[in-house]
Amino acid sequence: MIDLHSHSSASDGLFSPAESAEYAIQKNLKVWALTDHDTTDGLSEAAKVCAQSESGIIFLPGIEINVRWPTGEFHLLGLGLRKNSQELKDIVADLTESRHVRNQEIVDRMRKDGIDVTLEQIEQKFGESQIGRPHFAAFLMQIGKVKHRQEAFDRFLGKGRPYYVGHEGADLDVAVEAIRSAGGIPVLAHPLSLYVSWGKMDETIEKIRNHGVEGLEAWHPAARINEGFKLEELAHKLGMFVTAGSDFHGKGVRADRHLGKTSGDRKIEDRFWFEELAPHLGDFDFRETEWCK
Predict the structure, then answer these.
(1) What backbone phi and psi angles, to 5 degrees, belong to 37?
(2) How many H helices and E strands in the chain?
(3) How much is the pTM?
(4) How many Å apart are CA 16 and CA 6, to the nearest integer?
Protein backbone atom coordinates (compact mmCIF):
# COMPACT_ATOMS: atom_id res chain seq x y z
CA MET A 1 0.00 0.00 0.00
CA ILE A 2 1.29 3.45 -0.97
CA ASP A 3 0.00 7.03 -1.21
CA LEU A 4 1.13 9.65 -3.72
CA HIS A 5 -0.96 12.63 -2.55
CA SER A 6 -1.38 13.88 1.03
CA HIS A 7 -1.21 17.06 3.12
CA SER A 8 0.17 18.25 6.44
CA SER A 9 -0.31 21.35 8.58
CA ALA A 10 2.33 23.08 6.43
CA SER A 11 -0.74 23.86 4.28
CA ASP A 12 -4.22 22.72 5.28
CA GLY A 13 -3.76 19.31 6.86
CA LEU A 14 -4.30 18.49 10.54
CA PHE A 15 -1.05 16.66 11.32
CA SER A 16 2.35 18.34 11.42
CA PRO A 17 4.79 17.10 8.75
CA ALA A 18 6.52 14.90 11.35
CA GLU A 19 3.20 13.53 12.61
CA SER A 20 2.14 12.89 9.00
CA ALA A 21 5.32 10.90 8.40
CA GLU A 22 4.83 8.93 11.60
CA TYR A 23 1.23 8.17 10.61
CA ALA A 24 2.35 6.92 7.18
CA ILE A 25 4.90 4.67 8.88
CA GLN A 26 2.27 3.44 11.35
CA LYS A 27 0.01 2.58 8.38
CA ASN A 28 2.86 0.51 6.90
CA LEU A 29 3.00 2.48 3.66
CA LYS A 30 5.85 1.47 1.37
CA VAL A 31 5.83 4.82 -0.42
CA TRP A 32 4.39 8.09 0.83
CA ALA A 33 4.28 11.54 -0.77
CA LEU A 34 3.75 14.83 1.05
CA THR A 35 2.25 17.33 -1.41
CA ASP A 36 1.22 20.45 0.47
CA HIS A 37 -0.50 23.33 -1.32
CA ASP A 38 1.92 25.88 -2.79
CA THR A 39 4.65 25.20 -0.22
CA THR A 40 7.65 22.99 0.46
CA ASP A 41 7.89 24.03 4.12
CA GLY A 42 7.12 20.60 5.57
CA LEU A 43 9.40 18.47 3.39
CA SER A 44 12.60 18.54 5.46
CA GLU A 45 10.75 17.68 8.68
CA ALA A 46 8.92 14.77 7.04
CA ALA A 47 11.99 13.52 5.17
CA LYS A 48 14.07 13.30 8.34
CA VAL A 49 11.43 11.26 10.18
CA CYS A 50 11.25 8.82 7.25
CA ALA A 51 15.05 8.62 6.96
CA GLN A 52 15.39 7.74 10.64
CA SER A 53 12.67 5.09 10.50
CA GLU A 54 13.52 1.41 10.33
CA SER A 55 10.37 0.74 8.31
CA GLY A 56 12.09 1.22 4.95
CA ILE A 57 9.44 3.71 3.84
CA ILE A 58 10.23 5.61 0.64
CA PHE A 59 9.45 9.30 1.11
CA LEU A 60 8.45 11.30 -1.95
CA PRO A 61 8.94 15.07 -1.48
CA GLY A 62 6.24 16.91 -3.40
CA ILE A 63 4.07 19.96 -3.84
CA GLU A 64 0.58 20.73 -5.15
CA ILE A 65 0.56 23.93 -7.20
CA ASN A 66 -2.58 25.90 -7.96
CA VAL A 67 -2.63 26.61 -11.72
CA ARG A 68 -4.63 29.28 -13.53
CA TRP A 69 -7.70 27.69 -15.17
CA PRO A 70 -11.00 29.10 -16.47
CA THR A 71 -13.32 26.51 -14.90
CA GLY A 72 -13.14 24.43 -11.74
CA GLU A 73 -9.67 23.93 -10.26
CA PHE A 74 -6.37 22.91 -11.83
CA HIS A 75 -3.90 21.47 -9.32
CA LEU A 76 -0.49 20.30 -10.49
CA LEU A 77 1.46 17.82 -8.38
CA GLY A 78 5.23 17.94 -8.42
CA LEU A 79 6.50 14.52 -7.29
CA GLY A 80 10.05 13.51 -6.42
CA LEU A 81 11.44 16.98 -5.75
CA ARG A 82 15.20 16.74 -5.18
CA LYS A 83 15.96 20.34 -4.29
CA ASN A 84 14.39 23.71 -3.60
CA SER A 85 15.36 25.40 -6.86
CA GLN A 86 15.16 29.16 -7.34
CA GLU A 87 12.32 28.69 -9.83
CA LEU A 88 10.36 26.70 -7.26
CA LYS A 89 11.06 29.30 -4.57
CA ASP A 90 9.85 32.06 -6.91
CA ILE A 91 6.56 30.37 -7.78
CA VAL A 92 5.89 29.58 -4.10
CA ALA A 93 6.56 33.22 -3.20
CA ASP A 94 4.18 34.46 -5.91
CA LEU A 95 1.42 32.05 -4.90
CA THR A 96 1.88 32.89 -1.22
CA GLU A 97 1.39 36.59 -1.98
CA SER A 98 -1.70 35.81 -4.10
CA ARG A 99 -3.09 33.68 -1.28
CA HIS A 100 -2.45 36.51 1.23
CA VAL A 101 -4.42 38.98 -0.92
CA ARG A 102 -7.27 36.46 -1.24
CA ASN A 103 -7.29 35.80 2.50
CA GLN A 104 -7.52 39.51 3.27
CA GLU A 105 -10.58 39.73 1.04
CA ILE A 106 -12.16 36.80 2.90
CA VAL A 107 -11.52 38.58 6.21
CA ASP A 108 -13.01 41.79 4.81
CA ARG A 109 -16.18 39.91 3.88
CA MET A 110 -16.37 38.31 7.30
CA ARG A 111 -15.95 41.69 9.00
CA LYS A 112 -18.76 43.19 6.88
CA ASP A 113 -20.88 40.31 8.15
CA GLY A 114 -20.22 41.32 11.76
CA ILE A 115 -17.35 38.99 12.62
CA ASP A 116 -14.65 40.85 14.54
CA VAL A 117 -11.40 39.31 13.25
CA THR A 118 -8.23 40.33 11.43
CA LEU A 119 -6.05 38.33 9.06
CA GLU A 120 -3.17 38.67 11.53
CA GLN A 121 -5.30 36.95 14.18
CA ILE A 122 -6.10 34.09 11.79
CA GLU A 123 -2.41 33.72 10.86
CA GLN A 124 -1.32 33.74 14.51
CA LYS A 125 -4.03 31.28 15.50
CA PHE A 126 -3.09 28.70 12.88
CA GLY A 127 0.57 29.62 12.41
CA GLU A 128 1.07 28.13 8.95
CA SER A 129 2.66 29.66 5.87
CA GLN A 130 -0.26 28.74 3.65
CA ILE A 131 -3.52 29.82 5.24
CA GLY A 132 -6.48 28.54 3.26
CA ARG A 133 -10.23 28.08 3.42
CA PRO A 134 -10.00 25.07 5.78
CA HIS A 135 -8.40 27.37 8.36
CA PHE A 136 -11.25 29.85 7.99
CA ALA A 137 -13.68 26.95 8.36
CA ALA A 138 -11.94 25.92 11.59
CA PHE A 139 -12.19 29.51 12.85
CA LEU A 140 -15.93 29.66 12.09
CA MET A 141 -16.34 26.46 14.09
CA GLN A 142 -14.36 27.90 17.01
CA ILE A 143 -16.57 31.00 17.23
CA GLY A 144 -19.75 28.92 16.97
CA LYS A 145 -20.81 30.24 13.57
CA VAL A 146 -21.04 26.67 12.25
CA LYS A 147 -21.06 23.23 13.85
CA HIS A 148 -18.75 21.42 11.47
CA ARG A 149 -16.29 22.03 8.63
CA GLN A 150 -18.58 21.03 5.80
CA GLU A 151 -21.26 23.43 7.02
CA ALA A 152 -18.70 26.24 6.82
CA PHE A 153 -18.08 25.44 3.16
CA ASP A 154 -21.75 24.85 2.35
CA ARG A 155 -22.91 28.13 3.90
CA PHE A 156 -19.95 30.50 3.68
CA LEU A 157 -16.74 29.37 1.98
CA GLY A 158 -17.77 27.25 -1.00
CA LYS A 159 -17.91 28.67 -4.50
CA GLY A 160 -20.80 31.14 -4.79
CA ARG A 161 -21.08 31.51 -1.01
CA PRO A 162 -20.67 34.89 0.78
CA TYR A 163 -17.06 34.44 1.95
CA TYR A 164 -15.76 32.70 -1.17
CA VAL A 165 -12.90 34.41 -2.98
CA GLY A 166 -10.87 32.71 -5.68
CA HIS A 167 -7.14 33.26 -5.88
CA GLU A 168 -4.91 33.59 -8.90
CA GLY A 169 -3.08 30.44 -9.89
CA ALA A 170 0.29 30.05 -11.56
CA ASP A 171 0.88 29.87 -15.30
CA LEU A 172 1.01 26.20 -16.33
CA ASP A 173 4.30 26.45 -18.22
CA VAL A 174 5.94 28.28 -15.30
CA ALA A 175 4.65 25.64 -12.85
CA VAL A 176 5.92 22.77 -15.02
CA GLU A 177 9.36 24.38 -15.33
CA ALA A 178 9.52 25.07 -11.57
CA ILE A 179 8.83 21.40 -10.81
CA ARG A 180 11.37 20.19 -13.36
CA SER A 181 14.01 22.62 -12.11
CA ALA A 182 13.62 21.04 -8.66
CA GLY A 183 14.19 17.56 -10.12
CA GLY A 184 10.53 16.56 -9.90
CA ILE A 185 7.91 15.33 -12.34
CA PRO A 186 4.65 17.21 -13.07
CA VAL A 187 1.41 15.26 -12.61
CA LEU A 188 -2.15 16.52 -13.15
CA ALA A 189 -4.03 16.05 -9.86
CA HIS A 190 -7.69 14.92 -9.69
CA PRO A 191 -8.57 15.82 -13.32
CA LEU A 192 -12.33 15.79 -12.66
CA SER A 193 -11.79 19.04 -10.73
CA LEU A 194 -11.11 20.76 -14.05
CA TYR A 195 -14.90 20.66 -14.58
CA VAL A 196 -14.50 19.46 -18.16
CA SER A 197 -17.16 17.26 -19.74
CA TRP A 198 -16.20 13.71 -20.63
CA GLY A 199 -16.77 14.62 -24.28
CA LYS A 200 -13.90 17.13 -24.06
CA MET A 201 -11.72 15.26 -21.57
CA ASP A 202 -9.44 13.59 -24.15
CA GLU A 203 -8.54 16.79 -25.97
CA THR A 204 -8.18 18.74 -22.72
CA ILE A 205 -5.78 16.24 -21.15
CA GLU A 206 -3.85 16.01 -24.42
CA LYS A 207 -3.35 19.80 -24.45
CA ILE A 208 -2.19 19.71 -20.84
CA ARG A 209 0.21 16.87 -21.68
CA ASN A 210 1.61 18.96 -24.51
CA HIS A 211 2.67 21.57 -21.93
CA GLY A 212 4.96 18.98 -20.37
CA VAL A 213 2.71 17.33 -17.77
CA GLU A 214 3.84 13.71 -17.73
CA GLY A 215 1.50 11.98 -15.30
CA LEU A 216 -2.20 11.80 -14.50
CA GLU A 217 -3.72 11.14 -11.07
CA ALA A 218 -6.46 8.88 -12.40
CA TRP A 219 -7.27 7.49 -8.96
CA HIS A 220 -8.57 9.95 -6.35
CA PRO A 221 -11.43 9.73 -3.82
CA ALA A 222 -13.41 12.33 -5.79
CA ALA A 223 -13.56 9.92 -8.76
CA ARG A 224 -15.83 6.89 -8.94
CA ILE A 225 -14.16 3.55 -9.61
CA ASN A 226 -15.40 3.42 -13.21
CA GLU A 227 -14.08 6.96 -13.73
CA GLY A 228 -10.69 5.91 -12.38
CA PHE A 229 -10.49 3.14 -14.96
CA LYS A 230 -11.54 5.53 -17.75
CA LEU A 231 -8.91 8.09 -16.72
CA GLU A 232 -6.22 5.43 -16.47
CA GLU A 233 -7.05 4.19 -19.96
CA LEU A 234 -6.98 7.77 -21.28
CA ALA A 235 -3.60 8.47 -19.66
CA HIS A 236 -1.98 5.41 -21.19
CA LYS A 237 -3.49 6.20 -24.58
CA LEU A 238 -1.81 9.62 -24.37
CA GLY A 239 1.52 8.16 -23.23
CA MET A 240 1.21 9.43 -19.65
CA PHE A 241 1.92 7.43 -16.52
CA VAL A 242 -0.77 7.05 -13.84
CA THR A 243 -0.70 7.87 -10.13
CA ALA A 244 -3.12 7.34 -7.26
CA GLY A 245 -3.60 9.22 -4.01
CA SER A 246 -5.88 9.74 -1.05
CA ASP A 247 -5.62 13.56 -0.81
CA PHE A 248 -5.54 12.86 2.94
CA HIS A 249 -5.73 15.96 5.18
CA GLY A 250 -6.03 14.26 8.57
CA LYS A 251 -8.31 11.84 10.38
CA GLY A 252 -11.91 13.00 10.34
CA VAL A 253 -11.41 15.90 7.92
CA ARG A 254 -13.25 14.14 5.09
CA ALA A 255 -15.15 10.87 5.52
CA ASP A 256 -13.90 9.62 2.13
CA ARG A 257 -10.20 10.38 2.67
CA HIS A 258 -8.06 7.70 4.31
CA LEU A 259 -4.28 7.45 4.00
CA GLY A 260 -3.37 4.70 1.57
CA LYS A 261 -6.89 4.53 0.11
CA THR A 262 -8.36 6.07 -3.05
CA SER A 263 -11.52 5.80 -5.20
CA GLY A 264 -14.15 3.60 -3.61
CA ASP A 265 -11.94 3.24 -0.51
CA ARG A 266 -9.67 0.91 -2.50
CA LYS A 267 -6.15 0.32 -1.25
CA ILE A 268 -3.61 2.14 -3.41
CA GLU A 269 -1.65 -0.56 -5.15
CA ASP A 270 2.15 -0.66 -5.22
CA ARG A 271 2.06 -0.71 -9.04
CA PHE A 272 1.40 3.03 -9.15
CA TRP A 273 4.90 3.50 -7.77
CA PHE A 274 6.92 0.54 -9.05
CA GLU A 275 5.38 0.27 -12.54
CA GLU A 276 4.15 3.81 -13.21
CA LEU A 277 6.01 6.62 -11.41
CA ALA A 278 9.35 5.19 -10.25
CA PRO A 279 10.69 4.39 -13.75
CA HIS A 280 10.36 8.10 -14.62
CA LEU A 281 12.35 9.20 -11.56
CA GLY A 282 15.51 7.31 -12.45
CA ASP A 283 18.00 7.01 -9.59
CA PHE A 284 15.77 8.85 -7.09
CA ASP A 285 16.72 8.37 -3.43
CA PHE A 286 15.03 10.73 -0.99
CA ARG A 287 17.98 10.42 1.40
CA GLU A 288 20.13 12.12 -1.22
CA THR A 289 17.76 15.07 -1.70
CA GLU A 290 18.15 18.55 -0.23
CA TRP A 291 15.33 17.80 2.23
CA CYS A 292 17.48 15.28 4.13
CA LYS A 293 20.53 17.52 4.46
Answers:
(1) -70, 120
(2) 11, 9
(3) 0.91
(4) 12
